[in-house]
Amino acid sequence: MGGTEREIRKLYYSISEVSEIADLKQYVLRYWETEFSSLKPKKNKAGNRIYRQSDVDMVLKIKDLLYDQKFTIEGARQQLRNDTVQMPKKGFISDSQNQLKDLFHSIKEELQGILDTIWQE
């Protein structure tokens, strides 16, 4: 495993840990909080930022959009909005999920038929 990958995921990360994981300066992370509404780490009682895994994932996504894919900040914001719109809502079942559900139901019925045949012999 690489130096920035962790075998055990923590519940919360400090800004210095996220800075190290993402290979970014802390001031960049603080700036991105002002530019991307989807990046809002909580603060503990002492006022220090605490990043959840989803926050770390968002930092890495933003870094990819800005540094690797060369989006502008506005372009990255738009891309993140598009990604959010395309994600299915909780409880929403997509067509492919319905197809899988139907397939599993058919397989279950077929297996039940085989079991019934075996038990009758």
Annotation keywords:
single chain; 121 residues; mainly alpha; Multidrug-efflux Transporter Regulator, Chain: A, Domain 2; 2 domains; two-stranded antiparallel ribbon; 2 strands
Quickly describe the structure.
With 121 residues, this protein is mainly alpha-helical.
Topology, element by element:
Layout: H1 15-22, H2 26-35, E1 42-43, E2 49-50, H3 53-68, H4 73-86, H5 95-120
Antiparallel strand pairs: 1-2
Walk me through this protein's architecture.
The model has no long low-confidence stretch (mean pLDDT 83). The longest helix has 26 residues. It is built from 5 helices and 2 strands; from the N terminus they run H-H-E-E-H-H-H. It is mostly helical and 121 residues long. The relative contact order is 0.09. It has 2 domains: 87 residues, Multidrug-efflux Transporter Regulator, Chain: A, Domain 2 (Orthogonal Bundle); 31 residues.
